[in-house]
Amino acid sequence: MLTVNNLSAWYRYSHILQGVSLEVKQGEIVTLIGRNGAGKTTTLKTIMGLVDKCSGDVSFDSHPILGRPAHERFHLGLAYVPEDRRIVPGLTVEENLRLGIIASASRAKEAQMIERIAETFPRLKQRLSQQGVTLSGGEQQMLAIARAMMAEPKMILLDEPSEGIMPILVEEMFAQFRNLKAQGTTILLVEQNVELALSLSDRVYVMDQGVIVHHDSAAALISNPEIQEKYCSV
Ligand SMILES: Nc1ncnc2c1ncn2[C@@H]1O[C@H](COP(=O)(O)OP(=O)(O)O)[C@@H](O)[C@H]1O
Ligand SMILES: [Mg+2]
């Protein structure tokens, strides 16, 4: 579904990604882990088309996408939930959800999607008319994910969804990732909560200083404390 080959990315003169290669197959949950500053967010942003200076090859759903604008990647079925969530102030939960739908969708389809998303995220269902910014941090994160799901993406890129969120909500959120996977969504997840991420993932890539230093099945990495200690402490 997503193939990244020898990806480099720069911010001004800093060469941040230095030849990243990774693959996410259809229906998989793949996690990218690594210390702060390793380049995880930059990897997701470059895949989504939000970093100007980059080279290498990225193909999504058999389309070469590097060099295409972010909105085209979105229309091909790639969604991205950034670290900072970006709930739009002044809008209710439902209005925020409506923002996520592709402009061409009909009103009927929109209502149907809200219904479906609300079933997947019961916590949002109870709060559809509440102002989005008055939700708790964890609920805002769920809203950001639910909003991305409104466009029915084939694949979603999630950047540290559990950051700053109460453990009980994190568990609930991860249960929803399992649901999304069961519904056929492919997921590339960046996550500091390694234990929880591994429990959910098929495969894992470990990143350090702009390169992939290790990749393995989640099951194998669970029983590899050295790698976890070396590369995953914050
Ligand atoms: N907008 C930016 N401009 C310049 N440097 C940046 C920018 N964003 C991130 N960086 C640098 O790129 C490196 C990788 O950052 P990032 O991808 O955010 O890492 P991670 O998500 O793994 O913590 C860090 O050294 C960071 O300081
Ligand atoms: Mg980051």
Bound molecules: adenosine-5'-diphosphate, magnesium ion
Q: For the residues shown, what is the average pLDDT?
A: 91
CATH architecture annotation of the domain at 2-85 and 154-232: 3-Layer(aba) Sandwich
The fold-level CATH name of the domain at 2-85 and 154-232 is: Rossmann fold
Q: Show unreliable segments.
A: none
DSSP E strands, number: 10
Q: Tell me what portion of residues adopts beta-strand conformation.
A: 25-35%
Quickly name the level 1 CATH class of the domain at 2-85 and 154-232: Alpha Beta
CATH superfamily of the domain at 2-85 and 154-232: P-loop containing nucleotide triphosphate hydrolases
Q: How are the strands ordered across the major sheet?
A: 6-7-8-3-9-10
How many helical elements? Answer: 10
Terminal CA distance reads: 30 Å
**Main beta sheet: strand number and arrangement?**
6 strands, mixed
Helix content range: 25-40%
Compute the CA-based radius of gyration: 17 Å
Give me some keywords for this one.
binds adenosine-5'-diphosphate, single chain, Rossmann fold, 234 residues, 27% strand, 4-stranded antiparallel β-sheet, alpha/beta, globular, binds magnesium ion
